Amino acid sequence: MSGHSKWSTIKRKKGVNDAKRGKLFAKLIRSIEVAVKEGGTDPASNPSLNQAINKAKSNSVPSENIQRAIKRSDGVDNLSNYSEIYYEGYGPFGVAFYLTCVTDNKNRASSDVRSTFTKFKGSLGNPGSVSYLFERRGMFEVTGESDIITDYCIENGCLEIKEQVDSIIVEVNPKQYTKFKEWFESHEIKILSSDIPFLPKEHVIINSKQFNTIGNLIEALEELEDVHDVYTNFDISEKEFQSILK
């Protein structure tokens, strides 16, 4: 179970209050609106929209909100100021951070990200300083009949399968994301979460105390108005992770 998956588990366990949920919903809706503006309203021919919709659904954004955002954004010009940008840097303990932002004010986004890194004793890096440490993959956390899931994944060339206590992590080539998603849904495999994240090629191992420090930085970055995704290359042993869950 990777650091990315462990952090997702912690977030689900902690839950979110109404204020944070409202802010998250607003970010996810903005991603949908920008995706529509850039590639049209059909998820089948607009991979960015397909991903934005799936991520919104994984975070319990109501379907009617998603459809309203798509209709509202079709043909609207005032979204043209928004663009997707990336930031790279290092947090404490040598942990690399790769951020995706959707913003209409690059100066604000850059200033907020830089000051947050500084506050938590990290540093914002130059483009290319950490991106080489990450690669994009389709990722699912699912529950269902283990043998059926595993057999299908192996037969269809998934990149990695990780069985956990109560779920299975499946990593696939991003080009196969839709294929796997449709198969899971058609076979009544419950998808706990799905995304096409940037995952680390190698990890920095940290302990439970360091995990709390890194977690605080991740949460602070995720709270920023323009930050949509925070990816890191930390990992923590299963024993230490279980001690955090208790």
What does the model show?
This protein has 246 residues and is α+β, with helices and mostly antiparallel strands. The protein folds into 3 domains: 3-73, Integrase, N-terminal zinc-binding domain (Arc Repressor Mutant, subunit A), CATH 1.10.10.200; 83-133 and 200-245, 2-Layer Sandwich (Alpha-Beta Plaits); 138-196, YebC, transcriptional regulation domain (Alpha-Beta Plaits). The chain is 47% helix and 24% strand. It starts with a helix and ends with a helix.
Observed structural traits:
Arc Repressor Mutant, subunit A; Alpha-Beta Plaits; 24% strand; four-stranded antiparallel sheet; globular; 246 residues
What is this structure, in a nutshell?
The protein contains nine helices and twelve strands. The chain has 246 residues and is an alpha+beta fold. A hairpin with a 4-residue loop joins β6 (160-163) and β7 (168-172).
